[in-house]
């Protein structure tokens, strides 16, 4: 059996595996795609200490760093089930069962897509998902935020500080965000909220030049000229495979304590798949380190 088996090879998983291996314990990592969401990122400007890097470059260096250590790296493997017996068992899609004294789940999350024409085509060319990451690219420009929940309105308030104008497009007749956020948004001079708006298409040639939506009451089609669209209709954690083994929130996020421990002894979690409030590379790396040290501490107390 492993001492520490990490499931997920994004920033959280890579960090957890390196921290574990540095304790000289038997460490494995399963990753469907090493690097995780980082692979889909163009410019990264907020990994402190690195002024600028790019997603694929960072993903490759995470893997290189992990390879410096004695870590069993199992790529292109999907975990499909976890069970706590004497050891924690993780079953893979290919039927293999791996056993470990501790497991760190770091399977990340994915942004929910709108699924309209132009969204995939203009990803990183005006279509964005993370205001903390990409907001500054739209300084002085007109952007739309699609989604009027908490994350959408937080994004709109955040973007209003850098962008020229922010238009929020909400599908329903009301915003779902907390009223304090709505009030804050309404107090800003450069924001507009359009409700009952169904986004139909993100338009552009090489990059985004506008958004077309249907006014649901009238059925009329409208177009706004703008340079960016932030899609904020939900971040979905990749945790369905855990079923009801560990406690998860209503949103599916794994509940962890300040050592990364879940409700199952010996099972830890880190990164975007957890109920940590903010989802960023540096935060995921930190929580991966925390979970690995938490797992090590658990192990030396439960041998
Ligand atoms: P992930 O990166 O999601 O990694 C999850 C890992 O688990 C992957 O290896 C995946 O293949 C694997 N996995 C999933 N399910 C299974 C399974 N069942 N079995 C085995 N493996 C599995 N953050 C910043 O700080 N700065 C930025 O500039 C930035 N830009 C971003 C731009 C985009 C387009 C996106 C999508 C995100 C961006 N983020 C940015 C957010 C950042 O990428 C995430 O917060 C971070 O990658 C989360 O790390 P993680 O390790 O928790 O999860």
UniProtKB/TrEMBL annotation:
Record's cofactor remark: Binds 1 FAD per subunit.
Enzyme Commission no: 1.8.1.-
GO molecular function, one term: NAD binding
Sites where the protein binds NAD(+): 142-156
The protein's required cofactors: FAD
UniProt domain FAD/NAD(P)-binding: residue ranges: 2-277
Keywords recorded for this protein, A-Z: Disulfide bond, FAD, Flavoprotein, NAD, NADP, Oxidoreductase, Redox-active center
Domain of life: Bacteria
A GO CC term attached to the entry: protein-containing complex
GO biological process: response to reactive oxygen species
Disulfide linkage: 130-133
Binding site for FAD: 3-18, 262-272
Subunit structure comment from the entry: Homodimer.
Family designation: Belongs to the class-II pyridine nucleotide-disulfide oxidoreductase family.
Protein name (database record): Alkyl hydroperoxide reductase subunit F
Range of the intact protein held here: 208 to 510 of 510
């Amino acid at each position: 059996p492993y001492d520490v088996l990490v499931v997920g090879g994004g920033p959280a998983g890579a960090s957890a595996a390196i921290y574990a291996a540095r304790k000289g314990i038997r460490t494995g990592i399963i990753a469907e795609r090493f690097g995780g969401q980082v692979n889909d990122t163009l410019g990264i400007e907020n990994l402190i200490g690195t002024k600028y890097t790019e997603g694929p470059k960072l993903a490759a260096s995470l893997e290189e760093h992990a390879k410096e250590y004695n870590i069993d790296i199992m790529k292109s493997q999907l975990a499909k089930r976890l069970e706590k017996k004497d050891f924690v068992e993780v079953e893979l899609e290919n039927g293999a069962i791996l056993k470990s004294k501790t497991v760190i789940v770091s399977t990340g999350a994915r942004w929910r897509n709108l699924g309209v024409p132009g969204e995939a085509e203009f990803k990183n060319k005006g279509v964005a998902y993370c205001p903390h990451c990409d907001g500054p690219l739209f300084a002085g420009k007109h952007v739309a935020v699609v989604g009027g929940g908490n994350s959408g309105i937080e994004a709109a308030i955040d973007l209003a500080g850098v962008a020229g104008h922010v238009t929020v497009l909400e599908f329903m007749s009301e915003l779902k965000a907390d009223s304090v956020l709505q009030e804050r948004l309404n107090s800003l001079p450069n924001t507009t909220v359009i409700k009952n708006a169904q986004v139909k298409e993100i338009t552009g040639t090489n990059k985004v030049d506008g958004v077309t939506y249907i006014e649901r009451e009238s059925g009329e089609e409208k177009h706004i000229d703008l340079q960016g669209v932030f899609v904020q209709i939900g971040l979905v954690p990749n945790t369905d495979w855990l079923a009801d083994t560990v406690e998860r929130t209503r949103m599916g996020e794994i509940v962890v304590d300040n050592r990364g421990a879940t409700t199952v002894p010996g099972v830890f979690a880190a990164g975007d798949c957890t109920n940590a409030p903010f989802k960023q590379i540096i935060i995921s790396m930190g929580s991966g380190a925390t979970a690995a040290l938490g797992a090590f501490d658990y192990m030396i107390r439960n041998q």
